[in-house]
Design brief:
The complex is a heterodimer. Chain A is α+β, with helices and mostly antiparallel strands. Helices cover about 40% and strands about 25% of the residues of chain A. Chain B has helices at about 1-60, 70-85, 125-135; strands spanning about 90-100, 110-120, 140-150, 155-170. Classes of the chains: A alpha+beta, B alpha+beta. At the A-B interface, helix 12, helix 13, helix 14 and strand 13 of A face helix 1, helix 3, strand 3 and strand 4 of B.
Chain lengths: ~475, ~170
């Protein structure tokens, strides 16, 4: 909303100004429809100057703020107001729509409205300076307008106000505390049956416990309306609830209390409430029905977005699966992968494992033998991979032969070393035969051990031994 | 109106949704089976590479080559063994193909055995076996018999070797 041009004559636009004390309401009449434009209430500062004003635009939540600006042309005024608003509400360009009017003395008064979401983000403000302050709803305004009639000594008190052929407002108090504000849209029924509609409204907005409590004689009702309640209506109402009935005579007796005046009164209440921001915000959170209606359209939008996102995700998943299948098939084709290839690979693996587990190679035994038995003269050596390792040699004494057998027993590539035979040929010459078995748990002297035999730490030292003897090894 | 909508939905399902769902399902099944096969293949490749890396110092670079068939090995294996022995400084006196032997742990594989008679000096013995360990075909030393060529003549030794190599059964070259 942006009011660019000053309104010269409000009546020319069907706009009427109603004042009640320091409260002013603007309503607009368009044929038979009367629309509330704005309501203002002014708080006087210490020096008596007006500083804050509240405004309510029907269902919209709004704020009126008066700025004292120097006379300027429209464009400059726009910039001045924008700068001031940006100080008051940071980011106002995204959240606030505003317009302005010139006052009687020619100075501009900006009017800006704040979105409900913006309002909610400001609800956490801890100090009045942080919050815009002039935020309210028409329902809360009713409460402030008629709170003087609250029966604080009654357990349950209903104030039903503002009903006409279209709607009724119900203000509920319990033990002197405001517990609910309801608005009910009524059918277009003649005023003669308004009371019945009102009864239906009350019943609709009360839970079972409250309805029973209403029936108690100590409950109280306050009925206010644009037209004086007739005795027939009161009787009908009392017949239903069997309770006391109070009339706010002072308001009903306001001069010229017609439909427009009543709207004005509501607006004044809104303005009063607007000056109590904390209550206004708290109460706004209780307006379940109203917030439900206002969020209907965004909810449908969210559903559309959710369904579109779901379809997009499915499409992406579908395309991704197709692409993945194509990529994997291509990889399989590139590798010429089939059952025959896998079988061939299995065979290769079996052969490699077989070669790995064929025990120590003869070269490894020879290396270690040479290293362990220096100056050891042999006559014959036999090796069978899956059999025995046999050495035939000549020694000078049995002690020497035993020592050599002990050295062989210390070899890692051999096990089960024993002396098979000793034949004394001369005084210092004995022919003997040593027999051993190639070790089965020793795999490769020149290679790291396989994983399952890594715990055999001795293997490393044997490997070093064999490697060290490679240059000078031999029988 | 409702009937037209239902007919439209049915046609849409028949023409668009059903083929797309079928294609999707087929793609997922294909991807699942092929990826499982690919993963199995890669796992076995990795294992084979690991084992071959460990046995390469004992059997030479031949472990990385594809297995030869029996027919191919009848020619290549004796030649490879003789070359290795000669590189080691020994003299080959006789090479004789002993035959084929099946191994329980390796179905479809047969070990081709050779009997080799060698004459060498003592220093040549470790060199000969080292060269055999580096031959271009894996050589398994099955048995060795080292003895002096003549009594008390330690400068010359006779060596009788039985060596073998794994071969692929059947005549098809790998």
């Amino acid at each position: 909303m942006k009011l660019r041009r000053p309104v010269k004559t409000r009546e020319a636009y069907g706009t009427h100004v109603h004042r009640h004390g320091d409260r002013t309401a603007h309503v607009q009449q368009d044929g038979e429809t009367i629309r509330l434009l704005s309501v203002q209430a002014t708080l006087a500062d210490h020096d008596g100057s007006a500083s804050l004003r509240g405004v309510a635009y029907g269902d919209l939540v709004g704020v009126l703020h008066r700025l004292d600006l120097p006379p300027a042309d429209d464009a400059t005024t726009d910039k001045l107001i924008a700068a001031q608003l940006d100080l008051l509400i940071p980011g106002q360009a995204d959240h606030v729509s505003w317009g302005w009017q010139r006052t009687d003395d020619g100075r501009p008064t900006p009017v800006y409205t704040v979105s409900r979401r913006r309002l909610e983000t400001l609800a956490g403000a801890t100090s009045p300076e942080d919050a815009p302050g002039l935020i309210t709803t028409s329902a809360l305004a009713l409460h402030h307008l008629f709170d003087h009639s609250t029966a604080k000594d009654k357990r349950l008190h209903l104030t039903v106000i503002g009903w006409d052929a279209h709607q009724a407002h119900i203000v509920r108090y319990r033990d002197g505390q405001l517990v609910g504000l309801d608005t009910l849209m009524l059918d277009d029924t003649p005023s003669a049956i308004e009371s019945d509609a009102l009864v239906a409204a009350v019943q609709t907005h009360l839970d079972q416990a409250e309805a029973e409590e209403v029936a108690w004689s100590d409950s109280a009702f306050t009925l206010l309306g644009p037209e004086a309640m007739g005795s027939e209506d009161v009787a009908a109402f009392e017949k239903v609830f069997s309770g006391a009935y109070e009339r706010a005579e002072d308001l009903l007796n306001l001069p010229g209390l017609d439909r427009v005046t009543f709207e004005t009164s509501v607006a004044v209440g809104a303005a009063i409430a607007a000056l109590r921001p904390q209550q206004a915000i708290n109460l706004a959170a209780k307006e379940d029905g109203q917030s439900g209606r206002s969020s209907g359209q965004p909810t449908r939008g969210r559903w559309v977005v959710a369904v579109a996102a779901l379809l997009a995700a499915l499409a992406l998943l579908y395309a991704g699966d197709l692409k993945r299948a194509e990529r994997i098939t291509q990889a399989v084709d590139d590798a010429e992968l089939d059952a025959k290839t896998l079988m061939s690979l299995n065979t290769d693996l079996q052969v490699a494992r077989y070669l790995e587990t064929t025990g120590p190679s003869f070269l490894a035994i020879l290396d270690e033998f040479s290293h362990q038995t220096k100056h050891f003269t042999i006559d014959e050596m036999r090796y069978e991979r899956s059999g025995q390792f046999t050495v035939r040699a000549t020694g000078r004494s049995s002690d020497q032969i035993n020592q050599r057998a002990a050295k062989l027993a210390g070899m890692k590539t051999l096990s089960s070393v024993r002396i098979r035979s000793q034949v004394i040929k001369d005084r210092d010459r004995i022919d003997y035969t040593l027999v051993a078995v190639p070790s089965t748990n020793y795999f490769a002297p020149f290679a790291p051990p396989p994983r399952e035999a890594e715990q055999d730490n001795d293997e490393g030292s044997a490997q070093a031994d064999s490697e060290s003897s490679q240059s000078g090894g031999g029988a | 109106m409702l009937g037209a909508v239902l007919i439209g939905v049915a046609v849409l399902y028949r023409v668009v949704l059903s083929p797309v769902m079928g294609q999707w399902s087929e793609a997922r099944a294909t991807a699942a089976s092929q990826s499982a096969m690919l993963a199995q293949y890669e796992e076995r490749l990795e294992k084979r590479a690991d084992v071959r890396k460990r046995i390469e110092p004992r059997y030479g670079p031949g472990v990385h080559r594809a297995l030869v068939t029996v027919d191919e090995a009848q020619v290549a294996f004796p030649r490879s063994v003789q070359q290795a022995i000669r590189r080691g400084g020994a003299e080959v006196k006789q090479v004789e193909v002993q035959g084929l032997r099946r191994v329980r742990e390796m179905p479809g594989i047969e070990m081709l055995s050779l009997r080799v008679q060698v004459v060498c000096e003592p220093d040549s013995i470790p060199r000969m076996f080292r060269e055999l360990a580096g031959a271009d075909i894996p050589v398994v030393i099955e048995s060795v018999n080292l003895s002096m060529s003549q009594r008390n003549q330690r400068r010359k030794w006779d060596a009788a070797l039985v060596v073998s190599t794994p071969t692929r059964s059947g005549g098809n070259p790998s």
